[in-house]
Sequence to fold (324 residues):
Amino acid sequence: MDEVTALEERRTSNQKLEEIVPRPRSYRVEAVVLRRVDFGEADRVLVLFTRERGKQPVVAKGIRRIASRMAGHLELFTRVDIQLAKGANLDVVTQVDTRDAFRHLREELSRTSTAYYVAELADALTEEGDEHPELFDLLIATLRALETTDDTRLVAAHYTLRLLDVTGFRPVLQRCVVCGADLLPGKNAFSPFLGGAICPRCAPAEPTARPIPSDALKVLRNLQRAGALGSAHFRVPELVMRDVEGTLRDLVERHTERRLRSPDLIARLRVEADPIVRAAPPAVYDPEPDEAQALTPQPQEPALTPRPPLPQAGEGEQVTTIQP
Ligand SMILES: [Zn+2]
Fold:
Protein backbone atom coordinates (compact mmCIF):
# COMPACT_ATOMS: atom_id res chain seq x y z
CA MET A 1 0.00 0.00 0.00
CA ASP A 2 1.46 3.39 -0.91
CA GLU A 3 1.54 6.28 1.53
CA VAL A 4 -1.30 8.16 -0.17
CA THR A 5 -3.64 5.19 0.11
CA ALA A 6 -2.57 4.72 3.69
CA LEU A 7 -3.41 8.33 4.49
CA GLU A 8 -6.81 8.00 2.84
CA GLU A 9 -7.59 4.88 4.84
CA ARG A 10 -6.39 6.67 7.94
CA ARG A 11 -8.85 9.49 7.26
CA THR A 12 -11.72 6.99 7.22
CA SER A 13 -10.59 5.29 10.41
CA ASN A 14 -10.10 8.67 12.11
CA GLN A 15 -13.69 9.61 11.22
CA LYS A 16 -14.94 6.37 12.77
CA LEU A 17 -12.85 6.99 15.86
CA GLU A 18 -14.17 10.54 16.07
CA GLU A 19 -17.75 9.26 16.41
CA ILE A 20 -16.71 7.31 19.49
CA VAL A 21 -14.15 9.63 21.13
CA PRO A 22 -14.60 13.27 20.05
CA ARG A 23 -11.35 15.22 20.11
CA PRO A 24 -11.25 18.60 21.82
CA ARG A 25 -10.34 21.63 19.69
CA SER A 26 -6.95 21.83 21.35
CA TYR A 27 -5.16 19.34 23.58
CA ARG A 28 -1.74 18.17 24.73
CA VAL A 29 -0.15 14.75 24.38
CA GLU A 30 3.12 13.22 25.44
CA ALA A 31 4.65 11.40 22.49
CA VAL A 32 7.57 9.71 20.79
CA VAL A 33 8.13 10.38 17.08
CA LEU A 34 8.05 7.02 15.26
CA ARG A 35 8.03 8.03 11.61
CA ARG A 36 8.07 11.12 9.42
CA VAL A 37 6.73 11.58 5.91
CA ASP A 38 7.24 14.79 3.94
CA PHE A 39 3.97 16.22 2.74
CA GLY A 40 3.21 19.10 0.36
CA GLU A 41 5.81 21.83 -0.04
CA ALA A 42 7.00 22.33 3.51
CA ASP A 43 4.80 20.15 5.75
CA ARG A 44 5.48 16.84 7.31
CA VAL A 45 3.23 14.08 8.63
CA LEU A 46 4.56 12.72 11.90
CA VAL A 47 3.46 9.35 13.16
CA LEU A 48 3.51 9.75 16.94
CA PHE A 49 3.14 7.20 19.64
CA THR A 50 1.29 9.06 22.38
CA ARG A 51 0.78 8.03 25.97
CA GLU A 52 -2.84 9.24 25.86
CA ARG A 53 -4.11 8.02 22.48
CA GLY A 54 -1.72 5.38 21.21
CA LYS A 55 -0.46 5.78 17.67
CA GLN A 56 -1.54 9.01 16.02
CA PRO A 57 -0.49 10.72 12.78
CA VAL A 58 -0.38 14.52 12.97
CA VAL A 59 0.70 17.33 10.64
CA ALA A 60 3.55 19.73 11.37
CA LYS A 61 2.96 22.65 9.02
CA GLY A 62 5.92 24.48 7.56
CA ILE A 63 8.36 22.32 9.48
CA ARG A 64 10.67 21.89 6.49
CA ARG A 65 11.20 25.64 6.15
CA ILE A 66 14.59 26.77 7.39
CA ALA A 67 13.01 29.24 9.79
CA SER A 68 10.72 26.65 11.42
CA ARG A 69 11.10 26.72 15.17
CA MET A 70 9.57 23.26 15.50
CA ALA A 71 12.03 21.37 13.34
CA GLY A 72 14.68 20.72 15.96
CA HIS A 73 12.08 19.37 18.39
CA LEU A 74 10.52 16.78 16.13
CA GLU A 75 13.40 14.54 15.18
CA LEU A 76 12.82 10.79 15.10
CA PHE A 77 12.78 9.01 18.50
CA THR A 78 12.43 12.31 20.38
CA ARG A 79 10.18 12.39 23.45
CA VAL A 80 8.04 15.50 23.28
CA ASP A 81 5.08 17.31 24.82
CA ILE A 82 2.94 18.45 21.92
CA GLN A 83 0.01 20.83 21.73
CA LEU A 84 -2.36 19.81 18.94
CA ALA A 85 -5.23 21.65 17.28
CA LYS A 86 -8.09 19.68 15.80
CA GLY A 87 -7.77 19.53 12.02
CA ALA A 88 -10.24 18.55 9.31
CA ASN A 89 -8.37 15.30 8.85
CA LEU A 90 -5.14 15.04 10.82
CA ASP A 91 -4.61 17.23 13.86
CA VAL A 92 -2.04 20.00 13.60
CA VAL A 93 0.99 20.60 15.81
CA THR A 94 0.81 24.09 17.33
CA GLN A 95 3.52 23.88 19.99
CA VAL A 96 6.20 21.40 20.97
CA ASP A 97 8.57 21.00 23.90
CA THR A 98 11.34 18.41 23.97
CA ARG A 99 11.41 16.25 27.10
CA ASP A 100 14.20 13.93 25.99
CA ALA A 101 16.12 14.09 22.73
CA PHE A 102 17.98 10.80 23.41
CA ARG A 103 21.07 12.40 21.91
CA HIS A 104 23.34 9.44 22.57
CA LEU A 105 21.23 7.37 20.17
CA ARG A 106 22.49 9.53 17.33
CA GLU A 107 26.16 9.27 18.18
CA GLU A 108 26.67 5.70 17.04
CA LEU A 109 25.31 3.89 14.01
CA SER A 110 24.41 0.68 15.85
CA ARG A 111 22.33 2.63 18.38
CA THR A 112 20.65 4.70 15.67
CA SER A 113 19.80 1.71 13.47
CA THR A 114 18.41 -0.20 16.45
CA ALA A 115 16.27 2.83 17.36
CA TYR A 116 14.89 2.74 13.79
CA TYR A 117 14.00 -0.90 14.35
CA VAL A 118 12.33 -0.10 17.70
CA ALA A 119 10.22 2.64 16.11
CA GLU A 120 9.38 0.63 13.00
CA LEU A 121 8.26 -2.36 15.04
CA ALA A 122 6.02 -0.28 17.33
CA ASP A 123 4.50 1.29 14.22
CA ALA A 124 3.97 -2.07 12.52
CA LEU A 125 2.42 -3.88 15.49
CA THR A 126 -0.09 -1.22 16.57
CA GLU A 127 -3.23 0.31 15.13
CA GLU A 128 -4.12 3.97 15.29
CA GLY A 129 -6.10 4.98 18.33
CA ASP A 130 -5.44 1.79 20.35
CA GLU A 131 -4.47 3.05 23.78
CA HIS A 132 -1.29 1.41 25.03
CA PRO A 133 0.21 3.45 27.91
CA GLU A 134 2.40 0.47 28.82
CA LEU A 135 3.77 0.44 25.28
CA PHE A 136 4.61 4.13 25.57
CA ASP A 137 6.55 3.34 28.75
CA LEU A 138 8.25 0.41 26.99
CA LEU A 139 9.36 2.69 24.15
CA ILE A 140 10.86 5.21 26.56
CA ALA A 141 12.62 2.50 28.59
CA THR A 142 14.00 0.92 25.40
CA LEU A 143 15.35 4.16 23.95
CA ARG A 144 16.91 4.95 27.31
CA ALA A 145 18.52 1.49 27.52
CA LEU A 146 19.81 1.84 23.95
CA GLU A 147 21.65 5.03 24.87
CA THR A 148 23.89 3.28 27.36
CA THR A 149 23.96 -0.45 26.54
CA ASP A 150 27.04 -2.15 25.14
CA ASP A 151 24.79 -4.76 23.50
CA THR A 152 22.17 -3.12 21.29
CA ARG A 153 21.14 -6.49 19.85
CA LEU A 154 20.22 -7.87 23.26
CA VAL A 155 18.15 -4.75 23.98
CA ALA A 156 16.44 -5.10 20.59
CA ALA A 157 15.59 -8.76 21.24
CA HIS A 158 14.31 -7.98 24.74
CA TYR A 159 12.20 -5.12 23.39
CA THR A 160 10.74 -7.34 20.66
CA LEU A 161 9.59 -9.92 23.20
CA ARG A 162 8.10 -7.25 25.48
CA LEU A 163 6.36 -5.64 22.53
CA LEU A 164 4.89 -9.00 21.47
CA ASP A 165 3.64 -9.34 25.08
CA VAL A 166 1.87 -6.00 25.30
CA THR A 167 0.34 -6.29 21.83
CA GLY A 168 -1.10 -9.73 22.61
CA PHE A 169 1.32 -11.88 20.60
CA ARG A 170 3.34 -13.37 23.47
CA PRO A 171 5.09 -16.50 22.14
CA VAL A 172 4.75 -19.76 24.08
CA LEU A 173 8.28 -20.77 25.10
CA GLN A 174 7.94 -22.88 28.25
CA ARG A 175 5.76 -25.69 26.89
CA CYS A 176 4.79 -27.26 23.59
CA VAL A 177 2.33 -25.00 21.79
CA VAL A 178 0.64 -28.11 20.29
CA CYS A 179 0.29 -30.62 23.18
CA GLY A 180 1.12 -28.47 26.23
CA ALA A 181 3.92 -30.73 27.47
CA ASP A 182 6.83 -29.10 29.29
CA LEU A 183 9.77 -28.67 26.94
CA LEU A 184 13.01 -30.46 27.77
CA PRO A 185 16.39 -29.55 26.33
CA GLY A 186 16.82 -31.37 23.03
CA LYS A 187 15.49 -31.34 19.51
CA ASN A 188 12.67 -28.87 19.95
CA ALA A 189 11.15 -26.90 17.11
CA PHE A 190 9.48 -23.55 16.68
CA SER A 191 6.57 -22.39 14.58
CA PRO A 192 5.99 -18.67 14.03
CA PHE A 193 2.56 -19.57 12.66
CA LEU A 194 1.51 -21.34 15.87
CA GLY A 195 3.34 -18.73 17.94
CA GLY A 196 5.56 -20.95 20.02
CA ALA A 197 7.91 -23.84 20.61
CA ILE A 198 7.03 -27.44 19.75
CA CYS A 199 8.18 -30.65 21.45
CA PRO A 200 10.09 -33.36 19.53
CA ARG A 201 7.00 -35.60 19.46
CA CYS A 202 4.68 -33.02 17.87
CA ALA A 203 7.22 -31.37 15.55
CA PRO A 204 7.24 -33.97 12.72
CA ALA A 205 3.49 -33.54 12.17
CA GLU A 206 3.64 -29.73 12.07
CA PRO A 207 4.58 -28.48 8.59
CA THR A 208 5.49 -24.97 9.81
CA ALA A 209 7.90 -26.24 12.49
CA ARG A 210 11.60 -25.62 12.10
CA PRO A 211 14.37 -26.69 14.47
CA ILE A 212 15.31 -24.26 17.22
CA PRO A 213 18.63 -24.84 19.02
CA SER A 214 18.23 -25.21 22.79
CA ASP A 215 20.57 -22.28 23.43
CA ALA A 216 18.39 -19.92 21.40
CA LEU A 217 15.27 -21.11 23.21
CA LYS A 218 17.02 -20.51 26.55
CA VAL A 219 17.92 -16.95 25.64
CA LEU A 220 14.37 -16.23 24.48
CA ARG A 221 12.96 -17.60 27.74
CA ASN A 222 15.40 -15.62 29.84
CA LEU A 223 14.54 -12.43 27.99
CA GLN A 224 10.81 -13.12 28.28
CA ARG A 225 11.25 -13.42 32.06
CA ALA A 226 13.72 -10.57 32.41
CA GLY A 227 11.20 -7.84 33.20
CA ALA A 228 12.16 -4.20 32.66
CA LEU A 229 14.18 -3.18 29.62
CA GLY A 230 17.81 -2.73 30.44
CA SER A 231 17.61 -5.37 33.20
CA ALA A 232 18.91 -8.23 31.04
CA HIS A 233 22.67 -8.51 31.33
CA PHE A 234 24.16 -11.60 29.81
CA ARG A 235 26.44 -12.19 26.91
CA VAL A 236 25.04 -14.25 24.07
CA PRO A 237 27.35 -16.02 21.60
CA GLU A 238 27.10 -14.68 18.06
CA LEU A 239 25.59 -17.80 16.47
CA VAL A 240 23.00 -18.14 19.24
CA MET A 241 22.08 -14.47 18.84
CA ARG A 242 21.52 -14.98 15.13
CA ASP A 243 19.05 -17.76 15.90
CA VAL A 244 17.31 -15.64 18.54
CA GLU A 245 16.99 -12.75 16.07
CA GLY A 246 15.84 -15.04 13.26
CA THR A 247 13.13 -16.55 15.45
CA LEU A 248 11.91 -13.13 16.57
CA ARG A 249 11.96 -11.82 13.03
CA ASP A 250 9.86 -14.76 11.81
CA LEU A 251 7.36 -14.12 14.63
CA VAL A 252 7.12 -10.41 13.92
CA GLU A 253 6.74 -10.93 10.19
CA ARG A 254 4.04 -13.48 10.84
CA HIS A 255 2.08 -10.89 12.85
CA THR A 256 2.75 -7.87 10.66
CA GLU A 257 2.49 -9.88 7.43
CA ARG A 258 5.22 -7.82 5.90
CA ARG A 259 8.94 -7.64 5.98
CA LEU A 260 10.55 -5.01 8.13
CA ARG A 261 13.30 -2.91 6.63
CA SER A 262 15.43 -2.08 9.64
CA PRO A 263 16.70 -5.67 10.27
CA ASP A 264 18.34 -5.43 6.83
CA LEU A 265 20.20 -2.36 8.00
CA ILE A 266 21.22 -4.06 11.23
CA ALA A 267 22.34 -7.16 9.28
CA ARG A 268 24.51 -5.01 7.03
CA LEU A 269 26.07 -3.34 10.05
CA ARG A 270 26.74 -6.77 11.53
CA VAL A 271 28.77 -7.78 8.49
CA GLU A 272 30.89 -4.68 8.95
CA ALA A 273 31.19 -5.34 12.69
CA ASP A 274 32.12 -9.01 12.33
CA PRO A 275 35.89 -8.53 12.75
CA ILE A 276 35.14 -6.91 16.11
CA VAL A 277 32.83 -9.76 17.05
CA ARG A 278 35.56 -12.30 16.33
CA ALA A 279 38.08 -10.26 18.30
CA ALA A 280 35.77 -10.08 21.34
CA PRO A 281 36.65 -12.09 24.45
CA PRO A 282 35.02 -15.51 24.79
CA ALA A 283 31.31 -15.22 25.34
CA VAL A 284 30.08 -15.72 28.88
CA TYR A 285 26.46 -16.62 29.28
CA ASP A 286 25.11 -17.37 32.74
CA PRO A 287 22.38 -19.98 32.50
CA GLU A 288 20.08 -20.79 35.35
CA PRO A 289 21.37 -23.89 37.18
CA ASP A 290 18.57 -26.16 35.95
CA GLU A 291 19.12 -25.01 32.42
CA ALA A 292 22.87 -25.44 32.29
CA GLN A 293 22.59 -28.73 30.48
CA ALA A 294 20.94 -27.10 27.51
CA LEU A 295 23.88 -24.76 27.05
CA THR A 296 26.35 -27.57 26.49
CA PRO A 297 27.09 -27.80 22.78
CA GLN A 298 24.99 -30.54 21.26
CA PRO A 299 26.64 -32.00 18.18
CA GLN A 300 23.44 -33.73 17.09
CA GLU A 301 21.77 -30.34 16.53
CA PRO A 302 21.43 -29.48 12.85
CA ALA A 303 24.20 -27.18 11.67
CA LEU A 304 23.33 -23.52 11.54
CA THR A 305 23.04 -22.23 8.03
CA PRO A 306 23.48 -18.53 7.35
CA ARG A 307 20.17 -16.84 6.74
CA PRO A 308 19.86 -15.36 3.26
CA PRO A 309 19.55 -11.56 3.22
CA LEU A 310 15.99 -10.30 3.10
CA PRO A 311 14.85 -8.68 -0.13
CA GLN A 312 14.47 -4.92 0.07
CA ALA A 313 10.89 -3.90 0.66
CA GLY A 314 9.79 -1.14 -1.69
CA GLU A 315 7.15 0.25 0.62
CA GLY A 316 7.18 2.71 3.46
CA GLU A 317 10.25 4.76 2.69
CA GLN A 318 11.22 6.86 5.68
CA VAL A 319 11.00 10.10 3.79
CA THR A 320 8.56 10.14 0.91
CA THR A 321 7.20 13.16 -0.86
CA ILE A 322 3.47 12.93 -1.30
CA GLN A 323 1.54 15.00 -3.78
CA PRO A 324 -1.61 16.01 -1.90
ZN1 LIG B 1 4.02 -31.45 21.87
The longest helix spans residues 238-256. Strands lie at 26-39, 43-50, 54-60, 79-85, 91-100, 189-191, 196-198, 210-211.
